[in-house]
Amino acid sequence: MDIHQLKSLVTIARCGTVARAAELLHLSQPAISAHIKQLEEELRVRLFERHARGMSLTPAGEAVFEHAKRALHAVDAIRDEANSLNGEVAGELVIGTVNEPAFLRLPAFLRHMREAAPHVAISLVQATSGAVLKNIEDGVFDAGFVEGKLDGMAVDATLLQPVEFVVGYPAAWRERIPAGPGALVTALALPWIGTSSDCSFHKLTKSLFAHHGHAFTPALRTDDETLLLAMVGQEAGLSLLRRDMLDAHGKGDVCALDGVVVDAGMHFVTAQSPAKPGLLRVAQRAIRRAWPAT
Fold this sequence. Notes:
Largest sheet: 6 strands, mixed
């Protein structure tokens, strides 16, 4: 077996499809499939169950997956240590992103990275906050931007900026939502638009509903914030929305419920024991330059 086969195993296990793994690893789908076939033949076990929606690990695959993660972590650590001993800043960083690039200040971050470490290859992968955290835990991502609350999570996180969420509702529904303390109670009974379960919006919304004794059952789901805002404006339902995004793009067809604010934050996250501490120190310096107030 080789490192490329183990990377394919770990990546498919996390994203669930050969197509997505090929995209993340910059390989062809036949190459990814060949890696898994070779591993299964060498180990003489079936690693994945194939089904209509993708692939999931078998019990044997779960056991191999845990060893593969540790092996890849060790290889990355060896390379990072060797580069440090040689005085080099080189290698690859895979960084998970959420939201739009301008909000994350990605252009500034990448500019500072190029200045400090021109030989570091950076792969940016768009995902939900929950997926970013899981991929960092599994060693697929080296770092990532995560929105929401990280209380009690076993990661190293730098708060980049507090983020305020408000309850957005269609301006055309003003008559349906009375002003005053009862507004939220009425709003919770109306149709809501949600996101996938590992998205920060879902977790924050679920917590808001639970705090008022309701279960959150969205009528629609989307992980695209721009589409989410547009759907609220088109009377598809209510949703939590970033206040800055509503202020910038609401165009008068979306209102914020008075007196209801959910506080969270945007974070830059790494594992507590990362495989590439040298490269991540450079990345964290670039983050601080891009976000000078942090």
